[in-house]
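A quick word before the example. In earlier lectures we treated sequence and structure as two separate objects. From today on, think of them as two lines of the same record. Here is CDP-alcohol phosphatidyltransferase written that way.
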Amino acid sequence: MATIYDLKPEFQALLRPMAARLVRAGLTANAVTGTALALSLAQGALIALWPGARWPLLLVPLTLFVRMALNAIDGIMAKEHGQKSVTGAVLNELSDVVSDAALYLPFALIADVNAPLLVLVVVVGLITEMAGVLGPMIGASRRYDGPFGKSDRAFGFGLLAVLLGLGLSPGIWTTLMLAAMLALSVFTVWNRACRAVAEARG
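And the structure line, produced from the sequence above:
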C-alpha cells in the first residue's frame, strides 16, 4: 500500500550533495541523527511549555521537514559514505521512536484536544515502528508497509498543528482526525506484521 515513504528515493536524490558536503566537513551520520533527535525534543518542549500558544504549533511543519531531511541525510552518509555501524543502526531506530513521542505527546496538553485518544495514537505509532523492526528478527526485511508509517504520521500531526496554529478551536474535528489516524495506525501494525511473517515463511 502506497505511503509518503515511497517518495524517499527522490527526496534522497535532492539531498545527496548536502550529505557529501557534511562528510567533507567531518560530520558523521550519528551526529546528524543526534541533531534530528535534539530538534524533536526542543520542538516538543516548546509545545509543552506553551500549550496555549499558536506559534509553537506553526513551527511543527518546519521541524518535521527538517527532521525528515536529516533522517534521509544520515541514511545517505551511512550507506554511501562508509559510515554504517551497529551503533548507528540502534541510534537510528531508537531516535525515531523517542522523537515521535517527544514531538506528539505534548499535543495532549492543548486545551480541548482529546488527550487519551491522542496518547493512544502515539502509542500505536510506536508499536507500528516495533512491527517494522521485528522483520529482521524472524528472517524478513525491515518493514515499511503502510498505510500510516512514520512519514504519514508526520504529515498527519503537521496538518493538525497547522490547523490549530491558524486558530481553529479543537473539537469534534480533532477527535475524528485522531480517530482516523488511530485506525490507520492499527491497520499498519497488522499489515507490517502479516507481511513480515509471510516474507519469513518464503
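Notice the following. The chain has seven helices and no strands. We will return to this example when we discuss secondary structure assignment.
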